[in-house]
Design goal:
The complex is a heterotrimer of chains A (about 350), B (about 270) and C (about 270). Chain A has about 350 residues and is mostly helical. Chain A has twelve helices and two strands; from the N terminus they run ααββαααααααααα. A two-stranded antiparallel ribbon of chain A has the order 1-2. The radius of gyration of chain A is 21 Å and the shape is globular. Chain B has a two-stranded antiparallel ribbon with strand order 1-2. Helix content of chain B is about 75%, strand content about 5%. In chain B, helix 2 runs parallel beside helix 10 and helix 7 runs antiparallel to helix 8. Chain B has two domains: about 110 residues, no CATH class; about 140 residues, no CATH class. Chain B is mostly helical and about 270 residues long. Chain B is built from ten helices and two strands. The N and C termini of chain B lie far apart (about 50 Å). With about 270 residues, chain C is α/β, with parallel strands linked by helices. Chain C has a single domain, classed as Rossmann fold. Chain C has a six-stranded mixed sheet, with helices on both faces. A four-stranded antiparallel sheet of chain C has the order 2-1-4-5, with helices on one face. Chain C has a two-stranded antiparallel sheet with strand order 11-12. In chain C, helix 8 links the parallel strand 7 and strand 8. The radius of gyration of chain C is 19 Å and the shape is globular. Classes of the chains: A mainly alpha (about 350), B mainly alpha (about 270), C alpha/beta (about 270). Chains in contact: A-B, A-C, B-C. Chains A and B meet through helix 1, helix 2, strand 1, helix 3 and helix 7 of A and helix 1, helix 2, helix 4, helix 5 and helix 6 of B.
């Protein structure tokens, strides 16, 4: 999911850097207030952990392997703010010292994986886990779903950023200057890989880790109460208040729009198969897209089969408005903007409750 | 496919990280062009060129920047052969394949039809495809040369003097430091697991091994972070990060910085 | 002699498991003390309490007449002077070496003390030379051997010239040469005003590094005496799990004698 340098226009990079920077700033402030002097070593070592987990090859059904991001478990253990910092630092280390992932696109990558990923993972996990016991199977399931959904949300936002490039940035002749695939190709090409492989890798590793921690180190999963002095994590992931619960539910509802957005874009994509076959342009599109050669970012092998599956159910039957590529565009945009608004809203409201709690203690 | 291929490929990834770090130490210690400049000049200079690559819209100018990157590489004792192997082929295999279908999908003036397949390459498709690949190749070459010719602690020190928040710079440094320790720890866990495993493992059993290893590593990491915290406190840490920045810019540093910025600016302007 | 530490009847729980109980001890300036005990006897915890990192749940600790409490250590003036005077070398050097390079590591303490830059540079260079590790100054920690890490860890606290040194298993997991280097260093402080408290379970270095031995077992001090008296008391060492009875038979006569664990410590380290 790492976008390399050159895929995004300078203005896109600047906007996403600005978004990420505001995320880093508020996370750092919050974390320092919560953890005081402990923040630096905890976040640093956790970022190192995330970096190493990103190198794990997770075996998946069908003989393939995928890489996890580790954002889910970071969000569960550190809470969304700590997770934003830890994952961003891990990504920055990859880009700056190992030359992995772009430098101009670092803001974009942090926004997609660290910020969107952390918020989605945290909210999904909290809603599903609710008030269940620390040792409940439900928490393992919650971690799996949170991992799956958050990776797909990150992928969708990534696909959106990549997919708007040709529309917004092209020269006078119509040649795309940056990533060449419009939304109706970028979104399905990106999502197929993540709905099948990368999402599963994150789901598997998150669920496995939560189940391991339940047995070996349940203190790390504790959401409040008497977490020992050695681990001041309680403050980070403390229990959700009813008003916050509603908020997280709204965020979650928005997440459920994700599959609809994908479906819409996917249908628009499937539309070509029933489109005018006499048009060589359209045929070219079908050929390239359904052979799955056009992922904007890496997709594990074995997608060809799946892309056929994906195209089959749709040709021409969907309601007309879903077939329009603009609809997918609109939905993704709505999704992205809504996510941002809610994230900042959540940020302020959570901050308020924390302050209240602090002043009480 | 071998029995525990996922462990082996993960271990291969670990050793690649180490060998990259060692390779960069080796190149960084050689006398070369970039190596003699102040690290801040190297970081700002190469970043300026990367930004120019992203801004440029003309193939000729990006090609010129790629040539410039190669000249800097040779002058900085980075061999083109290793660049070709580590960077150019990798990018071609990744971005190249991603860009290929754009030849056909981008609508525009048809310039060549593939016989029998009734696929048509458009001029616009060709241009965007070449543009993307060239841009990525050039940007990655520049960053790789920078990373290879500059020990990472120098990059870090350069970042310190850029007025980034001291907390952020400290966290970057500490993360980088503990990445190596945790890689070593994970390595040992996987190796001991592997030596105990007999027979073919199912994918789900392998996943469990991966997740359990990650979980154990997480416990250890949190424990480690607490110990590090105590060690910091013990030496007088009270929340404020204090850093030592000791670079002195010399005349040729300023000259080099100006040259980099001029090249970047000129490229961005010419490539409008 | 002035008292450096006064520990009165302290207890400390680690996640509900008692680690220290009813421990009282006084340590005078210039003493070289060995805390002798098996793993889990509470040596490390005691050192951390003396370094103002953990605070006892009951009882009191003071250093040079000043109470060692969380509140008192939050005052900048006391925290600064205490951290300069008292230094702890952790058992695991990877914990202690958290900076990007050896040079940054050694400069860390002085920087926290807000010394002027020139003085920091000078002190760091002197310390590097004193420890014979000048060649390592630019190295990252992951390029150091175990012995080198230990030396850098020592250098990182010696740079502040502390009056009190707390050493947690300074010779564990070291090859014999590095081990004797560390022992030599501690020996140099004999007769100076420096107070050195070393936690160890290695009996063979006790006489070189200490004038006084505190034997610890299950979180408290069970004996206090000179090295020769303690090392001569086989029953005591047996009770503290520092040696084990070793039975074997010589031509029909079975007898048992205490058997010390001299070099078998490496396996016990985690």
């Amino acid at each position: 999911m790492h976008i390399p340098d050159g895929y995004l226009s300078p203005s896109t990079c600047v906007v996403l850097y600005a978004l990420s920077a505001s995320g880093w700033y508020s996370s750092l402030k919050r974390i320092k207030r919560l953890l005081a002097t402990r923040a630096i070593p905890l976040i640093s070592v956790f970022a190192a952990f995330a970096f190493v987990v990103m190198m794990f090859n997770v075996p998946l059904p069908g003989g393939t392997t995928g890489h996890a991001v580790g954002v889910t478990v970071a969000a569960i253990v550190l809470g969304p703010w700590g997770s934003i910092l830890a994952i961003s630092i891990a990504l920055a280390i990859q880009a700056l010292f190992f030359g992995d992932g772009g430098i101009t696109t670092l803001g974009a990558n942090c926004f997609n994986m660290a910020i969107v990923g952390s918020f989605v993972a945290y909210s999904v996990y909290r809603i599903i886990a609710a008030k269940s016991e620390l040792s409940a199977r439900r928490r393992v399931l919650a971690a799996a779903i949170a991992g799956y959904v958050s990776i797909n949300a990150s992928a969708l936002v990534t696909a959106f950023e990549v997919g708007i490039q040709p529309t917004l940035f092209h020269d006078a002749n119509g040649s795309p200057l940056y990533a060449p695939y419009p939304l109706h190709i970028a979104i399905p090409a990106m999502m197929i890989g993540h709905l099948t492989f990368a999402g599963l890798a994150e789901a598997a590793i998150s669920a496995g880790m939560v189940s391991y921690l339940q047995r070996a180190d349940p203190g790390l999963l504790r959401g409040g109460g008497e977490t020992a002095e050695r681990m001041p994590l309680a403050a980070l992931t403390s229990g959700t208040q009813p008003s916050e619960r509603r908020l997280w539910l709204t965020v979650a509802l928005l997440m459920f729009l994700t599959p609809i957005g994908i479906l819409a874009a996917g249908t628009a994509w499937g539309e070509w198969s029933s489109a005018d076959l006499a048009n060589p342009q359209a045929r070219a599109q079908i050929a390239s897209a359904s052979h799955g050669q056009a992922p904007p970012v890496a997709i594990p092998s074995g997608i060809q089969k799946l892309s056929a599956l994906w195209t089959a159910p749709f040709p021409g039957y969907a309601p007309f408005f879903i077939k329009r590529p603009e609809f997918g565009y609109l939905l993704s945009a709505l999704f992205g903007v809504g996510l941002l608004l809610l994230a900042s809203f959540a940020a302020t409201s959570l901050g308020r409750t924390w302050r209240k709690r602090e002043s009480r203690s | 496919m071998s029995r525990h291929s996922f462990i082996e490929s993960t271990l291969r990834g670990f050793s690649r990280a180490f060998s990259n770090a060692l390779a960069s130490e080796h190149v960084a210690n050689q006398p070369g062009l970039l190596q003699q400049f102040d690290p801040r000049v190297r970081v700002i200079g190469m970043l300026a060129l990367v930004i120019a690559v992203v801004i440029c819209r003309r193939l000729a100018v990006i090609t010129a920047l790629l040539l410039l990157a190669m000249v800097i590489a040779i002058a900085s004792r980075v061999s083109l052969a290793s660049l070709a192997k580590r960077v150019w082929l990798v990018v071609l295999g990744f971005t190249g394949i991603i860009a290929l279908p754009a030849l056909f999908t981008v609508p525009g003036k048809p310039i060549w039809s593939v016989p029998a397949l009734s696929l048509t390459i458009s001029a616009q498709g060709l241009r965007s495809c070449v543009l993307l690949v060239l841009r990525v190749e050039t940007a990655v070459t520049l960053t790789t040369v920078l990373v290879l010719a500059t020990p990472w602690m120098h990059i870090l020190k350069a970042l310190r003097s850029f007025h980034l928040p001291a907390d952020a710079v400290t966290m970057l440094a500490m993360t980088h430091r503990y990445v190596f320790l945790l890689i070593e720890t994970a390595n040992q866990m996987f190796e001991s697991r592997e030596s105990r495993m007999v027979g073919v493992m199912s994918a789900s059993a392998q996943r469990r091994v991966a997740a359990r290893t990650a979980g154990l590593l997480l416990s250890k990491s949190v424990e480690l972070s607490h110990e590090v915290y105590l060690a910091m406190l013990s030496r007088g840490f009270r929340g404020d990060v204090r850093l030592l920045t000791g670079f002195r810019m010399k005349f040729y540093d300023y000259a080099a910085l100006s040259a980099f910025l001029f090249a970047g600016g000129a490229a961005a302007w010419m490539g409008r | 002699m002035a008292l450096v530490f006064e520990v009165e009847n302290i207890s400390f729980d680690y996640e509900h498991i008692p680690a220290i109980r009813a421990l009282s001890v006084q340590i005078e300036q210039g003493q070289r003390v060995a805390l002798l005990g098996a793993n889990g006897s509470g040596k490390s915890t005691l050192l951390r309490i003396l370094d103002g990192l953990y605070f006892p749940s009951a009882g009191s600790v003071s250093c040079c007449g000043e109470p060692l409490t969380r509140e008192h250590l939050q005052q900048d003036g006391f925290a600064l002077s205490f951290r300069r005077r008292v230094a702890l070398v952790f058992q695991n050097p990877d914990v202690q070496l958290f900076n990007p390079t050896v040079f940054d590591e050694i400069a860390y303490g002085p920087l926290q003390m807000s010394w002027p830059k020139e003085e920091v540079l000078q002190r760091v260079n002197e310390t590097l030379a004193f420890m014979n590790i000048s060649h390592l100054r630019g190295r990252p920690p992951y390029r150091l051997s175990g012995g080198e890490k230990k030396q850098v860890a020592l250098a990182s606290v010696l740079v502040l010239n502390p009056d009190v040194l707390l050493l947690d298993e300074p010779t564990s997991a070291l090859d014999p040469r590095s081990q004797s280097q560390v022992v030599d260093l501690i020996q140099q402080w004999k007769g100076t005003m420096k107070t050195v408290i070393t936690a160890t379970h290695q009996l063979d270095i006790i006489e070189d590094i200490a004038d006084r031995v505190l034997v610890m077992e299950t979180g408290t001090v069970i004996a206090d005496g000179t090295p020769s008296r303690i090392l001569g008391d086989a029953d005591l060492l047996l009770r503290a799990n520092l040696i084990h009875a070793h039975r074997h038979s010589h031509v029909g006569i079975t007898h048992s004698h205490p058997h010390s664990h001299r070099h078998a410590d490496q396996e016990h380290q985690r």
